[in-house]
Amino acid sequence: MEKKRAALVLAGGGARGIAHIGAIEELYAAGYEVTAVAGTSMGALVGGMFASGHLALFKEWLCGLDARKVFDLVDLAWSTEGLVKGDRVMGALGELVTDRPIEQLPIPFAAVATDVVTGEEVVLDRGSLYEAIRASISIPSVFRPVRRDGRILVDGAAVNPMPLDRVQRTPGDNLVAVDVSARYSDAPERRSCTSLNHYQMLHSASEIMQQRITQLMCRLHRPDLLVELPTDSFGVFEFYRAAEIVEAGRRATRAALRALERSQRQSSLRERPIPA
Hints:
Layout: E1 4-10, H1 19-29, E2 32-40, H2 42-51, H3 55-63, H4 67-72, E3 76-79, E4 82-84, H5 87-96, E5 109-115, E6 121-124, H6 129-136, E7 141-143, E8 146-148, E9 151-155, E10 174-182, H7 188-192, H8 198-220, E11 225-230, H9 242-271
Helix pairs in contact: 1-9, 2-6
């Protein structure tokens, strides 16, 4: 089977980002070779583990987490900058995979963060892999921000939840995007009956804004293959459902590949000359 080259872009979405693992596995099963990866938030975390060559080990660790183990990774900061320090999570990753400079990774990688002071997008494609990941996953008010090079960095989803313009591309690459915060699957009437607390209201508003930015990015930089997992598929903090989420990513990718194949087949039939 001839390999198809893919420049891979992974969106943010909290625990739903674990679906990126299933997506990557399914792409390889379908004959794709990933030549570069860019990610935001959880997409940066999974993308970084993949680019470093340790995705299988990371998947095994994630699938071993239960609700108690997830809770044990939460180190409260009691700070006005964020509720969680994030040191335990990064420490656990460090025990799995040694940190290294991004420019030394076997696959080109970029993580996206946001300068919360200037509002600028910051692309992290050099220096410490873990520092880049830590900055990109810093959900405002949840994780403490990262201070780097005079900047205060938070989650890249605030400015570029689907960094289609930040992945390194070479001629012949297919632009492949995995959106794990796609439009809601449930009917609006059902959601309107749901009781929303203060946090849920803020979180839903944030997700809607990110969905709109993603839609605009897809219009500006149209991916050759777009995999979508609805926002309401899994909760942002449901990391203890890792195995289910990986499988959901695999199914969504399989469906997107089938849809692409049908589209290409129909296009080929339309272009075929009519016999005289």
